[in-house]
Predict the 3D structure of the following.
Amino acid sequence: MQILKYILKRILQSIPLLIIVSLISFFIIRLSPVDPLAELRLNPSVSQETLQKETQRLGLDKPIIVQYGKWAKSFVKGDLGITSNGEQVSTKLKERIPNTLLLTTIVILLTWLVGIPIGIIAALNWKSNLDRILTVLTSIGMAIPSFFFAVLLLIFAVKTGWFPIGGLTSSDFLEKSLLGQILDISHHLVLPVTVLFTLSLAGLQRQMRANLLDVLDSDYVKFARAKGLSEFKVIYKHALRNAVNPMITLLGFEFAGLLSGAALTEYVFQYPGLGRLILEAVLRSDINLVMASLMMGAIMLIIGNLIADILLIITDPRIRRGNV
Amino acid sequence: MFREVLKKLWADKFSRISLIVLGIIYFSLLFADIIAPYNKDFSDRTMAYVPPSKIFVVDENHHLSKPYTYNYIRSFDNENLRITYDIDRNQKHYIKFFSQGQSYKLFGLIPMKIHLITTDNDGRLYLLGTDINGRDVFSRILFGGRISMTIGFLALFVLFPIGLLYGGISGYFGGIVDIIMMRFAEAVMSIPSFYLLIILASILPGGMTSIQRFMLIVIILALIGWAGFARVVRGMVLSVKNQEFVQAAKSIGASRLRIIVKHILPQTTSFVIVAMTLSVPSYILSESGLSFLGLGIQQPDASWGNMLKEAQEYTNIIYRPWLLTPGFLIFVAVLAFNVIGDTIRDVLDPKSSK
């Protein structure tokens, strides 16, 4: 019950946050000298009537505050307007957001599966050569510019022919069986996942290493050792639990970093995700689409942080009793 | 403290290598005019996508010779429908060191003509090949590096005062001021940073001079990072604002701004230094990503990111791998900064000295 109350409180808190985000984004976009309907006007397949409707809906003839009000009203109603191709923005987003979520979820799972153990190994072998080598290896991963790594992997894919070049599905996707479709998508995901995985592994591994080192230094671990517990029990029953907790807070940050990193990776691999959508929208100055994808990005980020907080309540009894 | 950190950095094998690497990079960028065989904008349109010049030290009679190179001739292969480059073996072009070449102004002041490495007037020395406009990639890497390797520092110099003051005011005043300021900072942090970056970059009007554009990109980069930094500063201010020296300053009647700037913010110095070294690489990466997309530094100016823009085409990355060199340089520079940052963090962390 208390947890539910806390979650509700957090959701309510994020509403003013979203309002500020929308204000910031709206004013940045409106600051630009670009005519928001320029593309739409040039598109011959868009009728004069639609143009009229969009001008009305955005209130372009009115002052900027009124424009924001109009935008906010239709946003809350779920009407996101149309793109410069005349498509509905909401359908476009519905198509892209799951793809980005799929990519980031896989990457987060993988980095946790690999990063946590490597962090533990590094901490347990503190200041040994193994520790040094692991840290340097992950640093190398962190230092490669994501787009450059993506380009290198593309060369690899072109030269060997082992991986499809770009996209999420093959052209004969719809004719395949369910298993075939899953395999096809996984095949397409290998390269983008590799890029983002390499990028985000280092942060997780370092944090895990630092946390465990901190905890191993604490009094209760010394006590457990003095009590004569086996080293295995000391580390895996006592130290590790407390070292993992701060990592969960990091989950929110990791998600934020991935959303940003994914934009360039998606662009290079022609992956149909939110990052590429917003990039294309920006390059075409498609205002409705930019605004909506910005908001979606912010909402995803806030939800990501919320999930991390809830997970933390579940794993950490101190927070459950104290703060809620 | 500073000297001690340097000593520790030098004692560590990895960070010593990193320091040397960065030293070489920055030295070459400083003297780019001398080291580069050509000027930044020199282009020979007949020489587009020429592969790196081959340098010979053994001549056709198997005798040791002064190093020389041949020019390339471009021709069209009618059978395979592609352009081929063949070495023109008729004319040897000897490589000359510290001799006269194109004129330039060293540091923008001293007119000079000396180049570290060049060849005679008819010859073309392309150490790393050329790009689509027939410009020397090696020279452009040197000039582009000046932008790529300094933009991060400049952004930090814009960002840190903003973050310090914002966090300082928010933490010191507390109450409703604090709540409003922190909500705003959190909202900025809630927009995925790269999304914010490309949107800010996209509203830059066209037709600016390259200096104006460069400065605006610096400001945009700074606008991304200040919020997170301000939040940490606020936390530190909260922890010191009730200490005696602050109360002492208050009791002698110092103004609130003076207390924040003169008494509280100096307490955060070591954190600021660490945060700065740790965040330089991320700004280098951001700039290169932005320029790679065509939203950052624009042609004809060079930056490592916008030189990689050409690598977006398959034919380029397969047939002209020399266009990828800036990517390796970004990698090396960022890696070196990261290694140094790690060591500094270890040195300043009191726990590690046990």
Remarks:
- The two ends of chain B are 17 Å apart (CA to CA).
